[in-house]
Amino acid sequence: MSRLRLLALVGVMIFGCATIALSETFEIPESVIMSPKQFEGYTPKKGDVTFNHMSHIDIPCQQCHHTVADTYTIESCMTAGCHDDIKVRTEISSVYRTFHTTHDKEKSCVGCHRELKRQGPSDAPLNCNSCHVQ
């Protein structure tokens, strides 16, 4: 019985330390501008997207920032080595696929917005120009 209590105590301590460490260094920006203009030699057809974190506050960070569990850091979706393929739209590393696929209801903006609309009334935008403002 004492081994079980010791394991439980160690688990609580590890969880508590990780929570404190993350809470002290973690700041959510109100919004971020996502722009494919960062990719050399690419001229986007649509405008940048201003992503408002506050309107998505009820969604767990790791749902979109899927590397959090492995790295304990939150990076931009278009960080080098993540979703940085601007040319091929079908690859998992594709910038386009990350935001526009309808096959992923959790990690894709369009997929999630369509699922919300399917479930009932929602202000989740589906029109391209609602997100891509020129």
Number of strands: 2
Q: What is the fold-level CATH name, i.e. the topology? A: Cytochrome C3
Output the CATH homologous superfamily: Cytochrome C3
Q: Give me the secondary-structure category.
A: mainly alpha
Provide an overview of this structure.
The protein is mainly alpha-helical. It has one domain (29-131): Cytochrome C3 (Alpha-Beta Complex). The chain contains 6 helices and 2 strands; from the N terminus they run H-E-E-H-H-H-H-H. It has helices spanning 2-25, 61-64, 68-71, 95-100, 109-119, 128-131; strands at 31-34, 49-52. Strands 1-2 form a two-stranded antiparallel ribbon. The chain is globular and about 65 Å long. The model has no long low-confidence stretch (mean pLDDT 81).
Task: From the structure above, extract its key features.
globular, two-stranded antiparallel ribbon, 134 residues, 2 strands, 6 helices, Cytochrome C3, mainly alpha
In short:
By secondary structure, the chain is mainly alpha-helical.
